[in-house]
Amino acid sequence: MTSPIRVLPLIVTPGPKGYALLDSGNGRKLERFGTIVVERPEAQAMWQPRLARTEWAKAHAVFSASGEDEEKGRWRVDKPVPDAWPVEVEGVSMQCKLSGLWHLGLFPEQTPHWQWMVRGIGRDAADAPRETRRVLNLFAYTGAASLIAARAGAEVVHVDASKKAVSWGRENAAASGLGDAPVRWICEDARKFVAREVRRGRTYHSILLDPPKFGRGPDGEVWDLFEHLPAFLSDCAKLLAPEGAHMVLTAYAIRASALALDGLMRDTLRDRGGTIESGELAVAEKDGDRLIGTSLYSRWSSP
Ligand SMILES: C[S@@+](CC[C@H](N)C(=O)[O-])C[C@H]1O[C@@H](n2cnc3c(N)ncnc32)[C@H](O)[C@@H]1O
């Protein structure tokens, strides 16, 4: 009889070099992004903080949520914070800012996916001369994955609906010495872009997608994860190169299990073989064993 218990992977990371989750508790977390310490809401931290209040008081800025929504609210700045400051992530320099509301321009828990992508880009197919790897970063935000891929020698297409995110990505490229790297910065609705690439018969070795639950394209196009993800993922699968390809899907703050992403990924890539791994991403507290679960993921690589 097969065991009724199956285990889903939990990918745990301390985050990139320039980041640390210093402490958490009472619905809050204390983090260091480069030289700046911030305190933000964290609904999952139901335990007690371990550090003394005096340590929490060292934060440069504290985000207070307005009402129920922990992502809406405002920063209280207690010590001088530059308009933008660098945080080192896998050899690129991400400029963090307090201007992006609750987020600072960097999702540290994604680090293991970026490392996995770089290993995938470097995977050698055969003895034949290697094609330059093509990477498609969808819902690409401020471009950490785009720049890490470019640094690894790939040609990158970066797609995001927000003009602000795209120009922030370009700033990060310049700060990382990658201003001339082969990255196409595209401000467009991800579904429209992918549909056009399918019509053009384009392919990519690496596709990353980190869609929000709900979003809008630059012309007001609606993105609804539960409604649009299945057809969208199926279009993305059409863009995967015949060999040496991989795809990573992450989802934040959705009422679903990692099994839902897993089932969808298996359905979509049934004919391609390969391996699929799905689970949760978690950030580990510095010097501690406590973990904060951040998102669900599913990732596929070709045989
Ligand atoms: C959660 S963020 C992605 C985080 C990023 N992948 C990272 O780890 O740093 C979601 C992004 O999706 C973008 N977005 C929302 N709706 C979109 C749409 N319809 N087409 C393209 N991008 C969209 C937003 O502008 C935002 O930058």
Q: What can be said about this structure in brief?
A:
This protein is of the alpha/beta class and about 300 residues long.
Any key phrases for this structure?
binds S-adenosylmethionine, 24% helix, 7 helices, eight-stranded mixed β-sheet, globular, alpha/beta, 17 strands
Give an overview in words:
This protein has 303 residues and is of the alpha/beta class. Helices cover 24% and strands 34% of the residues. The protein is built from seven helices and 17 strands. The strands form four sheets. The chain has an eight-stranded mixed sheet with strand order 1-16-17-15-12-9-10-11, with helices on both faces. The model has no long low-confidence stretch (mean pLDDT 94). S-adenosylmethionine binds next to strand 10 and strand 13. S-adenosylmethionine (SAM) binds next to strand 10 and strand 13.
User: What percentage of residues falls in helices of 4 or more residues?
Assistant: 10-25%
The outline comes out as globular
The number of strands is 17
CATH superfamily of the domain at 10-14 and 99-301: Vaccinia Virus protein VP39
Ends: how far apart?
Answer: 29 Å
- CATH fold description of the domain at 10-14 and 99-301: Rossmann fold
Q: Helices and strands: which structural class?
A: alpha/beta
The CATH architecture category of the domain at 10-14 and 99-301 equals 3-Layer(aba) Sandwich
SSE ordering: EEEEHEEEEHEHEHEHEEEHEHEE
